[in-house]
Amino acid sequence: MIRKEVLMALMDEKKAAVLKIILNSKEELYLKEISEKSNVSIASTFRILRELVSVGLLQKRIWKNSKVYTSCQNEKVEFLKSLFEEDFDGVDEFVRLVETVPGIQQIILHGSKKKGKANILIIGEGVNAVQVEDAKAKLKEKSFELSYLTLTKEQYEQMVQMGLYSGEKKVLKG
Question: What class does CATH assign to 90-173?
């Protein structure tokens, strides 16, 4: 990816960080959200967003007393998206985030993982649902949709015997 390296060398770090957040988001974002996610000050983020709107890369929509930003649908944006596209493995990230949650004995990928989406079975006793939901929310921020089901070992074995969990399975932990 020589083009990406050249472009990044020519662009300042703050602008690259803001662009990366906007281009990889499927939702409209507020100034404060973009600033926090990119670790760029609000003043700098505002200046960068104003510039990106003026060159036709972003749309600014005024909603009540707020302004939201989203990327435009044009050739320039598609080119930049191809350069700033993140290779994000949501399944690996989920396993990393929940591997220390007490009670989890096994994590199983049910079916195949698709781009931006996966189904997970969590096998264990007394699994802290709040920690698992937090991990799921972090993935959603990166546009990765994860569905999961928590089962005890006995429930999982009974469901397998009934044929409810046939098909492709991959043990990720345990």
Answer: alpha beta
Q: What are the residue ranges spanned by the domains of the chain?
A: 2-84, 90-173
CATH class of 2-84: mainly alpha
Distance CA 54, CA 44 (A): 15
Q: Which residues contact 135 (CB under 8 A, 6 or more apart)?
A: 94, 97, 98
Phi first, then psi, for residue 165 (nearest 5°) are -120, 50
d(CA 121, CA 91): 12
pLDDT tens digits, 91-120: 889 999 998 899 999 999 988 777 788 999
Element at 15 (helix H, strand E): helix 13-23
pTM (2 d.p.): 0.55
Q: What is the 3-state secondary structure (H, E, C) of 29-96?
A: EEHHHHHHHHCCCHHHHHHHHHHHHHCCCEEEEEECCEEEEEECCCHHHHHHHHHHCCCCCHHHHHHH
Distance between CA atoms of residues 29 and 143, nearest Å = 13
Report the distance separating Cα 20 and Cα 34, nearest Å.
10
Please give the Cα distance from 104 to 123 (Å, whole number): 6
C-alpha angle 57-50-143 in degrees, rounded to nearest 5: 55
